[in-house]
Amino acid sequence: MAARIMPFFEIATGSTLGALLGMRHALEPDHLAAVSTLISDERGSFRGAFLGLCWGLGHTFALVVVGGVLILLRAEMPPRVADLFEFGVAMMLIALGLRAIGRAARQGVAGPSALHQHGPVVHRHPGIAPHVHVGHFTLARRPLLVGVVHGLAGSGALTALVLATLPSAAARITYMTLFGLGSTLGMAALSGLLGWPLARIGGETRTLRMISLVVGCVSTVLGVFWGVPLVGRLIG
Q1: Residues with Cβ < 8 Å from 209, sequence gap 6 or more?
Q2: 173, HSE (Cβ side, Cα atoms, 13 Å)
Q3: Cα–Cα–Cα angle for 133, 210, 216, nearest 5°?
Q4: Which residue, 158, 159, 151, is CA-closest to 74?
Q5: What is the DSSP track for 172-224?
Q6: Half-sphere exposure of residue 134, counting CA atoms within 13 Å on the CB side?
Q7: Which of 10, 46, 87, 89 is the most buried (most CB within 10 A)?
């Protein structure tokens, strides 16, 4: 009986720890920077939480798929592949940051501006730029892909951890799944909280522009500092 209880206890304990560590994992700087650049587009807690949820689902999917394969093969991710995934995160942070900076620059002091023409006269004035309305799937696709990239980058280290500490493949995969779900819940809650003050700011375009600029700069700088050491390892 004791022999049966012990594996169950180890799985339950490890799974609970995995979920808690996953929630803490959502607070890591690269995750916050990436999701913040996405949330700065939105207005409201629900929309922010939805984007955080999409990020978490993508993150969990990558962790479970790649980590599960490594666990079943009892293998660790090659260091060069892990560095390549990490470099992908750095490039993504830079791209998201530059996008946020560009959006803030286009808005101008008075908010978004639009190029307008009357016959031969072309001028720019405040107003909503030309745009299209998209469905929830299109809206969710970007944070989902951002989450997948983060999950790929973290799957190697997490797999190495569970291979060394947990006794069976079932316990390891359960741990990774609940770690990912914990990250999902943590990021959804955090994104909802970040969306709340953005909704309160409302039409204060100058403040929203500054937030977008600051978030973009932080994401870009973090991506550069993250990626520079990786370049040396990848080309070395």
Answers
A1: 104, 107, 108, 109, 111
A2: 14
A3: 75
A4: 159
A5: HHHHHHHHHHHHHHHHHHHHHHHHHHHHHHTT-HHHHHHHHHHHHHHHHHHHH
A6: 8
A7: 89
Asked if the model's pLDDT at residue 200 lies above 80, the reply is: no
State the Cα–Cα distance between residues 105 and 101, nearest whole angstrom. 6
> Exposed/middle/buried for 228, CB within 10 Å: 0-12, 13-18, 19+?
exposed
Tens digits of residue pLDDT in 23-42: 777 778 888 888 888 777 66
Residue 87 confidence (pLDDT) = 94
Please list the residues that pair with 121 across neighbouring strands: 118
* Amino acid 217: pLDDT: 93
**8 Å CB contact between 181 and 22:** yes
Contact 195, 97 (CB under 8 A): no
- Is-contact 56 187, C-beta < 8 A? yes
